[in-house]
Amino acid sequence: AVAASGGWPMGMPELLSVLAGQLVGEGKDLMTSLLRAQCGAAGTVPSLARDVRSALLQRSGVEDLPTDALRREAFEAAFARGFWSLTADSSGMHWREREAERLLERARREMWIEGSVSRRELEAEIHKFLIRYRVGCAAS
């Protein structure tokens, strides 16, 4: 049934009003977080993420962390710094693209010496980037 509300189905204006209220009220933070996450999987980030993952696999022989505890620690680190300060727009996407490019360049220059501090730091940064990428894919 169509109400006398400009051709909208009955209840639609009220539903849109509630939805709009949520998007500018309590839901605004959720929407911003979703957009921020999507920056991690937009633009050229997917192809760069494949390259970063490939570099990690080629150089270290593994693409994932060996234990649940290490995966949980990496997940927490991915959101402790560098996620919440990212802008939820195209500049955030470009930031993620530059981050991937820097990781790729560093992976090319790295000596990948077993047990070295620089290797552990690079692997940790790559894991954080890939986690943010996966979250971005899930948010898209």
Shape by Cα distribution: elongated
Mean pLDDT: 88
Distance between the termini: 34 Å
Taking the sheet with the most strands, its summary is:
none
Query: Percent helix among the residues?
Result: over 70%
Report the count of strand segments: 0
Order of helices and strands: HHHHHH
C-alpha-based Rg, rounded: 20 Å
Low-confidence stretches: none
Strand content is under 5%
Number of helices: 6
Structural class: mainly alpha
Write structural notes for this entry:
This protein has 140 residues and is mostly helical. The protein is 70% helix and 0% strand. The chain contains six helices and no strands. It is elongated and about 70 Å long. It starts with 11 loop residues before the first helix and ends with a helix.
Primary descriptors:
140 residues; mainly alpha; 6 helices
Write the layout of secondary structure elements.
Blueprint: H1 12-24, H2 27-39, H3 45-60, H4 68-80, H5 90-109, H6 117-139
Structure at a glance:
The chain is mainly α. The protein is built from six helices and no strands.
